[in-house]
Amino acid sequence: QVQLVESGGGLVQAGGSLRLSCAASRIIFTINNMAWYRQAPGRQRELVARITRGERTNYADFAKGRFTISRDNAKNTVYLQMNSLKPEDTAVYSCNVDHSGGINWGQGTQVTVSS
User: Fold this and answer.
1) d(Cα 93, Cα 2) in Å, to the nearest integer?
2) Which residues contact 75 (CB under 8 A, 6 or more apart)?
3) Is the pLDDT of residue 1 over 80?
4) What is the pLDDT of residues 14-73, one digit of tens each?
5) What is each CA distance from 101 to 12, 29, 31, 75, 104, in whole angstroms?
6) Which DSSP string corresponds to 2-21?
7) Parallel, antiparallel, or unpaired: how do β-strands 91-99 and 102-105 relate?
8) Where are the beta strands (DSSP E) in 1-115?
């Protein structure tokens, strides 16, 4: 069973930055897409960014120009660099990994942006 361990969330002032990490608990030989989602209180979960096995990326409109997704296949890790954070970015951020054994979700990490 693969577990995804996230880190990097926290409290930051508006305009600040955070870098989220999501690492698999064991080696996964074939990882396809890796993605970050978020869910704010009272709202549905939404895609933030996705990166394919070939490292093609796509972003939600709110993330374009501010967030960058990247991956390190040797470490089975996906990152989300978030800059110019806004209070409306406050949410629980979860990673999602599509691999040869199935699809796994991280437990989520809280990001809170104060105004």
Assistant:
1) 19
2) 23
3) no
4) 999 999 999 988 877 788 999 999 999 999 999 999 999 999 999 999 999 999 999 999
5) 36, 9, 9, 17, 9
6) --EEEE--EEEETT--EEEE
7) antiparallel
8) 4-7, 10-13, 18-24, 31-39, 46-51, 57-59, 67-72, 77-82, 91-99, 102-105, 109-114
